[in-house]
Write a structure and sequence with these properties.
Length: 383
């Protein structure tokens, strides 16, 4: 069995890739350009370097990577194609874990090199806008107090639990607009978030829907269609916000989980769901529009939802939280978020009343006499 070794680069210009491997990069370049010389030009390397590297890998891995036919363009062998596919699958499935490892390393060195840097730990449901936000914050190199976002992607439920257990400063989760008081969304999040203890910071509105093969060959327009056609579905794990959303939508459509072929199969992120569809191992999955568009897949919008950032009231005025709120309200960040497919900035960085965005919390108006007698209790329960 071949073993995998991981390396990382520490420099001022290490690039954006989370994990790089020169072999898949060379294979991809050969597949795109049809020749070693074309691949070398695209990669900014010499012909000799690319040729020699591919030959060494063939010896080390024990298989032919490139096939040349007389008078024909170079193409990947079956072995080379499988290696490239395996790398794409691994990167897509492990993207949240890779991002967390990347964040851990950057956090350590941010603290080591800049004693004035703000480090903000955020556990969050997987979201591509947060990935963009982390890069945007890191690019503000001229800031007096740079902000580093230590983002760990997990399910929405686990993110809020991490907040309540003191393992992070912020938790990212998402809900439908105006979730019903008896919905699964309300039953899931109400025990975890309490008025007077938590605060909600606005972040974004994003579109969730069905991620499909290009052209939507099965003609899917709803979850009812997914059930009717027996399309192979790929789900998100228990504890994820999208799994909660799916179960609410199934209930609204009068469908049971058993009606969805593949309901029990799950992937850890929107990216991994999209990759499963792109690879043909699934016909459809629930996810955000950006994940589908990034891979040239089809997308059927089902609803818009709000992505929230929750924190404890005690941490709202901490310098790191204030720095994030300031960044979120800048026109530059709003403009960048607007370029992301399916995203719209919504009350970005604003502290919102819990009863406004989580409407299962309703606070009755007290009569004057009752209000006077319970003034202190009312102050404690104000969202």
């Amino acid at each position: 069995m071949h073993r995998v070794q991981l390396h990382y680069t520490l420099s001022r210009d290490a690039g954006d890739a989370l994990i790089r491997n020169p072999l898949p990069e060379m294979l991809q370049a050969v597949a795109e350009h049809g020749s070693i010389s074309g691949a070398a030009r695209a990669l900014g390397l010499s012909y000799r370097h690319v040729w020699g590297a591919l030959k060494r890998w063939e010896e080390q891995l024990g298989g032919e990577l490139i096939i040349w036919g007389k008078g024909q363009a170079a193409q990947l062998s079956a072995f080379g194609s499988k290696l490239l596919w395996a790398e794409r699958q691994a990167q897509a499935r492990l993207a949240p874990q890779i991002a967390a490892l990347h964040a851990d390393l950057e956090r350590a060195f941010a603290v080591a090199f800049d004693e004035h840097a703000h480090v903000l730990t955020l556990y969050a449901s997987h979201d591509d806008a947060l990935v963009a936000l982390r890069a945007h914050a890191a690019a503000q190199s001229d800031a007096d107090a740079p902000l580093h976002l230590d983002i760990r992607f997990t399910g929405s439920v686990d993110a809020i639990r991490a907040l309540n257990e003191g393992r992070c400063t912020l938790a990212g989760f998402h809900t439908v607009e105006q979730p019903a008081a008896l919905s699964l969304t309300a039953r899931t999040y109400k025990p975890l978030l309490q008025p007077g203890l938590h605060k909600i910071i606005g972040f974004a509105r994003r579109t969730q829907g069905l991620i499909l093969a290009p052209g939507n060959p099965l003609g899917l327009a709803s979850l009812a269609d997914v059930a009717r056609t027996g399309a192979r579905f790929v789900n998100r794990p228990l504890g994820s916000g999208t799994r909660v959303l799916l179960d609410d939508l199934l209930a609204q459509a009068g469908l049971d989980a058993q009606h969805i072929a593949g309901y029990t199969r799950d992937e850890p992120s929107h990216t991994a769901v999209a990759q499963a569809v792109a690879a043909g191992t699934a016909d459809v999955g629930m996810g955000i529009e950006l994940a589908a568009r990034a891979r040239g897949l089809g997308f059927v919008p089902l609803l818009q939802e709000r992505y929230h950032l929750a924190c404890l009231k005690a941490s709202l005025d901490q310098p790191a939280t204030q720095a994030l709120r300031t960044l979120l309200q800048t026109p530059a960040w709003h403009a960048q978020m607007a370029t992301l497919a399916g995203y719209t900035p919504l009350h970005c960085g604003e502290v919102l009343a819990m009863s406004r965005v989580l409407p299962w919390w309703r606070f009755a108006q007290k009569k004057d006499g009752a209000r006077a007698g319970n003034m202190h209790g009312s102050a404690r329960n104000k969202p």
